[in-house]
Write a structure and sequence with these properties.
The complex is a heterodimer of chains A (361) and B (265). Chain A is α+β, with helices and mostly antiparallel strands and 361 residues long. In chain A, 25% of the residues lie in helices and 36% in strands. In chain A, the strands form four sheets. In chain A, strands 6-7-8-3-9-10 form a six-stranded mixed beta sheet, sandwiched between helices. Chain A has a five-stranded antiparallel beta sheet with strand order 13-12-11-14-20. In chain A, strands 15-19-16-17-18 form a five-stranded antiparallel beta sheet. Chain B folds into two domains: 25 residues; 205 residues, MetI-like (MetI-like fold, Orthogonal Bundle). Chain B starts with a helix and ends with a helix. Classes of the chains: A alpha+beta (361), B mainly alpha (265). Chains A and B meet through helix 2 of A and helix 7 and helix 8 of B.
Chain lengths: 361, 265
């Protein structure tokens, strides 16, 4: 029988009376890039620290290759961590920092030197080997911290918001470096972050956490297109979330009454009945924008309030007559052609195929 | 602006006079130690190293100097070790009554020296340990350990708490981490503490006088000479003591300040 690399079974961690994480159940496979994402205080860092043995679960089981790890000390594990603070040793130079773990393992000084230089080379910072840590830039420190962990040649590498202190352009570069490394080495990466762009850009699978519990586990695309609950829908991406009651169903098409109008959607693999109260979700990038009233059943007339530019994309914020806020994302190139103005009224529309619904309790 | 400058000037004068007040007697002591006349009067006599030759040939003073060096060097090791242990236990662990624990540890320097000295004498003679060099070392360690603890604690508080965990995470046991992370990180504070506790022990008079018995240290012998008669030898001894202490204190300061600067960067 083969076991997953890591498995969490009903893991709960309390700090005194404070509940950090509750009933975590998930598995991590060999060679995957898993991101754990959530707002601050959601328990993602605690989860990572339990993997490293820096915290012990209050109850439940953590297994590595089916071996129970609950009370195994941090230094007896092979789970190097890349710290948010980087935690490089300030009294050692770059190469000595990288050698540190090998030294603790009792590796001979000759092998240590060879390996540390190899890894510094791989991360393109070999020329810094003799430098003092305090003389490095943020990006260089990041690479040294990675080398220090990777030199241990572990099966699993833990990363705790490692890019949060870097400038935006460096973040993108380091993302590429990390993705490349992970593919090349075939090591399992567990990456904790609050940034959706980081998680979705790199990970094969994402765990979304909220107040100490898992909200959803899935591939980035699945989480983005079919959020499992309202928290995920609000936390991930730019979603338009309406709420309403189903008043009619005709051959796989459901009709729903919301505050800003009556709309419809296709029922796919879901049990929807008359009278259900639903969250009716349309992703901002699946909205259409037009100057004249379109011939579509799902339309709303809105006033443009403001716009926000991120790279080549622009997000427009609009308001319907009843005060509901709508968001739409489009290419900046497309947007600038339209010559539209704040305060003017425009039409939004969407296809019934692009609607995601969540049943409300 | 001009008002600020004015106050600034006054403060500078004030500081200047404090230094004059403190250092003039010491400066005169040094000057008179090279004076050929027996009595410290102005005008000065000829330049002479007579008094230095005299103390150099005095076996009793030599013995006192050796005693002082032995006492202060062993004291600084013990005090720094104890100070490090308490500072680390404070840094690392949370426990009940920690406030009381820290208050107790920091208590000795707040007790008037004469009372501490008397108590030490009473206690040490009760357990049959008074009148030996070890008695002075014990008493001085008690007195100076809090200074060591304060300095090392300051350093530990600057340390990124992730550093220790990072070492465990890379396979270092607690002991490995102590040797390879905590101690190297605290090195400037430890050196600073060694110098400072040695200086305090070297200069300390009251406790030494009470518990030393026949094993006199330098401050004790100075008092004995002064009590007997006016003897310029004291100036010569004082000059030595002053330069020893000031060297230790400045070394301590240099290490302290360099790490403070680095910490701020």
């Amino acid at each position: 029988m083969t076991y997953p690399l890591v498995s969490f079974k009903n893991v709960t961690k309390n700090f005194g009376k404070m509940n950090a994480v509750t009933n975590l159940n998930f598995e991590i496979d060999k060679g995957e890039f898993l991101a754990i994402m959530g707002p601050s205080g959601c328990g993602k860092t605690t989860t990572l620290r339990m993997l490293a043995g820096l915290e012990n679960p209050s109850s439940g089981e953590i297994r590595f290759n089916n071996r129970l790890m609950n009370n195994v000390k941090p230094h007896e594990r092979d789970t190097p961590l890349v710290w948010q603070s980087l935690a490089l040793f300030p009294f050692l130079n770059v190469q000595e920092n990288v050698e540190f773990g090998l030294k603790m393992r009792g590796v001979s000084s000759k092998t240590r030197q060879k390996k540390s230089l190899e890894w510094l080379e791989k991360l393109e910072v070999r020329e810094l080997a003799k430098r003092d840590i305090s003389t490095l830039s943020g990006g260089q420190k990041q690479r040294v911290a990675l080398a220090r962990s990777l030199v241990m040649e572990p099966e699993i590498l833990l990363l705790d918001e490692p890019l949060s202190a870097l400038d935006a352009h460096l973040v993108i570069r380091m993302q590429a470096v990390l993705t490349q490394l992970q593919k090349e080495l075939g090591i399992t990466f567990v990456y904790v972050t609050h940034s959706q762009s980081e998680a979705f850009a790199m990970a094969n699978r994402v765990i979304i956490m909220n107040v100490g519990e898992i909200s959803q586990i899935g591939k980035p695309k699945d989480i983005y297109r079919s959020p499992a609950n309202q928290f995920v829908a609000e936390f991930v991406g730019r979603n338009n979330i309406l709420s309403g009651k189903v008043y009619d169903i005709k051959s796989k098409i459901a009709f729903i009454k919301t505050n800003s109008g009556n709309y419809n959607f296709e029922i796919i693999d879901k049990n929807i009945e008359l009278g259900h109260t639903l969250n009716y979700i349309i992703s901002a990038d699946l909205m259409n924008f037009s100057l004249v009233k379109p011939k579509n059943s799902n339309i709303v007339n809105c006033k443009l309030i403001s716009e926000e530019y991120i790279g080549s994309m622009v997000t427009l914020f609009l308001e319907s007559v009843d005060g509901t806020e709508f968001k739409i994302q489009m290419q900046e190139r497309e947007y600038s052609k339209l010559n539209i103005q704040n305060g003017e009224k425009y039409w939004l529309s969407w296809s019934k195929k692009n609607v995601h619904t969540l049943k409300k309790d | 602006m001009t008002k600020d400058k004015f106050y600034n000037l006054i403060l500078k004068f004030y500081l200047f006079f404090i230094f004059v007040f403190i250092f003039t007697p010491i400066a005169f002591s040094i000057i008179f130690s090279f004076n050929s006349q027996r009595f410290p009067t102005i005008p000065l006599g000829n330049f002479s190293i007579e008094w230095y030759i005299k103390i150099f040939n005095d076996a009793e003073i030599w013995q006192a100097a050796i005693n002082s060096v032995v006492v202060s060097s062993i004291t600084c090791l013990i005090a720094t070790f104890l100070g490090f242990c308490t500072a680390y236990s404070d840094y690392r662990y949370r426990f009940k009554f920690k406030g009381i624990y820290l208050a107790l540890v920091l208590l000795p320097p707040t007790i008037p020296l004469i009372i501490l000295a008397l108590a030490m004498l009473a206690w040490l003679s009760k357990i049959g340990m008074s009148g030996q060099l070890w008695s002075i070392i014990c008493a001085h360690s008690v007195l100076t350990a809090p200074f060591a603890m304060a300095i090392i604690r300051l350093r530990l508080n600057q340390m990124d708490p992730d550093l220790e965990a990072a070492s465990w995470n890379l396979g270092g046991s607690e002991w490995d981490t102590m040797r390879n992370v905590i101690l190297p990180y605290c090195r400037p504070a430890i050196i600073s503490s060694l110098c400072l506790t040695a200086a305090v022990s070297f200069d300390e008079f009251a406790i030494s006088w009470f518990v030393s018995g026949l094993n006199k240290t330098v401050p004790v012998i100075i008092l004995e000479i002064v009590q007997g008669n006016i003897d310029p030898q004291v100036n010569a001894i004082g000059t030595f003591v002053f330069f020893t202490s000031i060297t230790l204190v400045i070394t301590a300061q240099i290490f302290f300040l360099t790490w403070q600067m680095k910490g701020k960067k």
